[in-house]
Design goal:
heterodimer, A: alpha+beta, OB fold (Dihydrolipoamide Acetyltransferase, E2P), Phenylalanyl-tRNA Synthetase, Chain B, domain 3, 42 strands, B: alpha+beta, BirA Bifunctional Protein, domain 2, eight-stranded mixed sheet, 11 strands, 40% helix
Amino acid sequence: MKFTRNWLFDHLETDHPFAEIIDVLPMLGLEVESMVDRAATLAPFIIAEVISAEQHPNADKLRVCMVNTGSGDPIQVICGAPNARAGMKGVFAPVGAYVPGIDLTLKAGEIRGELSNGMLCSEREMEISDDHDGIIDLDDEAPIGTLFATYAGFDDPMIEIAITPNRADCLGVRGVARDLAAAGYGRLKDIDTSPLEGSFDSPISWQLDLTPADEYLCPLVSGRAFTGLKNAASPSWMANRLTAIGQRPISALVDITNYVMVDLGRPLHAYDIDKIDGDKLIIRRAKPCETMTALNEKTYELDEDMLVIGDANGPDDLAGIMGGERTGVSEATKSMFLEVAIFDQISVATTGRKLNIHSDARFRFERGLDVTSPEWVSGYVARMVMDICGGEASHVVSAGAGTAWQRNIFLAIDKVERLTGIEVPKDRQVAILELLGFSVSEENGGWQVSPPPWRGDIDGAADLVEEIGRIYGFDHLPMQRLPREHVVAQPAVNVKQARPLRLRRALAQRGLTEAVTFSFLAEKEAVMFGGGDDCLRLVNPISADLSIMRPSALPNLLSAAACNQDRGEADVAMFEIGPVFFGDKPDQQRTAVAGIRHGAMAPREWHGSRRIVDVFDIKADVEAGLSALGVRRDSLQIEEGGPDYFHPGRCGRLLQGRKLLAQFGEIHPSVVSHFGLRSALVGFEFFLEDVPLPKSRGPARSYLKMSPFQPVSRDFAFVLDVELPASQLLRTIKSAAGSLLSDVQLFDVYEGENIATGKKSIAVTITLTPEKATLSDVEIESISNAVITAAEKNCGAVLRA
Amino acid sequence: MESLDAVSSEIIDAIDIADSLDALEAIRIDALGKKGRISLMMRELGGMNAEDRRAAGQTLNRVKDDIATAIDAKQKILAAVVLNERLEAERLDVSLPSRPHTDARLHPLSRTIEEVIAIFAEMGFQVAEGPDIESDYYNFTALNIPPEHPARQEHDTFYLPADAEGGRKVLRTHTSPVQIRTMESQDPPIRIIVPGRTYRSDHDATHSPMFHQCEGLVIGDGIHMGHLKGCLIDFCRAFFGVDDLPVRFRPSYFPFTEPSAEVDIGCTRQNGALKIGAGDDWLEILGSGMVNPRVLENCGYDPEKYQGFAFGMGIERIAMLKYGIPDLRTFYDSDLRWMRHYGFLPFDAPSIHAGLSGGGI
């Protein structure tokens, strides 16, 4: 919502400086978005007369001008404009002036040997238009020495304020003035809304073609005809204001409708009576497939949900949104019919959304107008039309029963204090409401308050409290600490919510950097990772790359790795904890924990630690992650295999019993190359919901028994089938070694020379920690034999010679 | 028999000029070894009468001690020389780079969320959560935003296909639906915050289709807008670490609160740099208000009995302001250079007792 200072002062009589008013607007809920004060930027520019303009002795295209600025001696200026001539009046910028269009502060100087002490300016140099054909050539009567901004009417600053959806009343300057007056910043001036008696019957009348059930679509409409009009350019005061708020003046009649829309927040529509087919304007639902060309010269196909106004020829006004081209006014218009209507807000919003038309009228209609305005605005506008365009006005014609807008809301005397903590004196509460247009009558313990017809947003007592509170000032809010229920604060997260916090740190300690990627991705990648469900496809995606909810956090991490690789960072180790989606129900959203490694574990460096990442790096990551969540490593089983985005021979699952906890492995080479990655990539993923919460045993640890006896280690090398998983051998050894076993480490895997084809050698060291006494050779021997026998029996493993 | 003095001084001299541990050892054997010159002299004591033996013995023992002491002293000197030689030979160029270690970083978003949680935990809040895919009802209608309400247009909603029952699903445009879910499932008093992902179909320099919000909801006896003010001032000052941070409440509009207020914090802008704190300008950082009675009714609460406040803030925004991160879009780029610069070390958990700002590392 844009307006100018003087426009506001048409409605507000005030002694307060304008700067103070600008400062208070946001505190009333009217956020000032910008202010443009051309008087300030144009302050140094004054009207001057060119006394003489002689050819520059050293430059063909320059002239040496003597300029009378109205005070002091004439000033010499070198000017290159073709239209500079003796006797003309122009705009002069003295030395020291900042010229915005060329971003330069003027200095005294010489141009080709001749002194120049200022500048004669073009419109573009002052940033008032793009015109740069020559310097400004003012009328002869322009007063020398006065400010150009004042002379040209540019001394009226423009203010733009943001209007929240509830404040339709402030989509007119008058509403803003009313708020200011209520807050004590002046008095709301009266405007003449008295009826204007017409002098003839309108040749056009209304016809509401609506079923009783549809009457809500247009509860009230009025109109009147004007004849004998002269639709020339609007007067400069009006044109200047419209220009200042960024609207192009078109013709007086169009400008008047636009002006009143901003002035009173009341959109109007003007028809050229000579273009209306018949003598009726019919308000009705559009027929299926009917079309209409609107004032924006676009043709729209309509449907039955849209309200239109038409004549015998068809629809030519999208009710509350935009008029039609066929019956609109033009400079040739002599007779006009002016529409002042109320339409259903939702109907306007729906139609506007369907047709994708964003107009100032729609913006106001869908937020709600003064529902009584068809009754009172007609006289106000008629006087304006006849003042500017002459002619005569008809009697008013109207249709519709109007809206039952009057309602009472009870406001308890202590409601404001109860809800806001602010103590507002009783009489001040009443005064604020009355100044805002509410009528207030006292009732037991409070007031009955009736909102004015322009405040459709007022729904209940809380809204009244807001009105009183914001006008009285939120500065009065007391600062009240929340009562503290516990002296020592309780945890804000529960056991489940604490897990990501811990997990994040565990994975970062492993060297994985945390990423936050989008919850959506491209369909192709969703499908590649097991997703692509129709119910997760966005109806209105922002791009094809972000069109479907992700089934896994891995693909976005792969994309991120590719981006980093392309920026020269091929060694990537990253994780993300975030949502993934297996359906559109709340319980089908899960929290994925995914990690990837790409490239090498270390940079090229002289210690030789550089190594291409492999499955065992990522396996360590996923194990660390699960451990951080309290999953005991010895409770996990491992199984080969995984989804088909993994390398079929290099992936595995971690299970607890039959329950799948996590998957990890090398990503399938074809997936890796799809993402444009150039090195092997390993990854893991699990879902937090799958990981059981550790059984709560309280904070105390179990009793630790530490043996005072020396542990002993024994090494074994077994030869076994290459196909047999190492985990099976380890499990066998663990159970065979018995209770004294404190550690098993697999320290070598070997295939090749000295080992038969199809076989591999696995070397392990076991550590036995005695509990009661140092182990004897016999005891060690016996445990060793048990290990060897079990390995042979369960795994076909033979002790290597 | 040789003169004891001559022998002694000869040996002491030899010790003095010995230039290696081996030479010293040879001298020791020659003097004090089993067949050493001093040892042999000791042996000769056996042939003396008692009186002579005592006198000679004392002298001889003193000489022997002197020699042993001299050898020990010399040995220390020579050992030090040997050690020094070895150390010299073992010299390394310590200016060579150390073994590589990767400091992985945590994302400023999760960090900021943890800071927010830490502060609100102090004020007795619990974290609540809700789904990212919401029904139209929870995201809008229950929050007093009926269909075709102009406020909906400001939400730039992402839609999903209608479900089997015809219910329209949306990606939640704010964390506010969790207000409803919480009030539906529990009785007052309520103090929750809801950090989470939110979505709007807008993508430019200052908008991302996905971003994060943190909702807050307090319902209880006699909770009024003054408590809202106190709570949010306490939060802003703790979060930004500025004790005298000016905080301003400005009337605004949200369909689910009434009255509603935007919250601004004080700042100064100089030469393009923004400084949070008392200054001549204001910066909008969050929206808030008293829960609209319509919303309370929608959740089955009696608005005459219960009242409270709600607020919502953009996590990216407060993180950008606090940590001087200039561009919203970079949060989701997963650019390792950015993470190394703006990320946080994993051991550095924000807490009230140890600090909320990460010490700048």
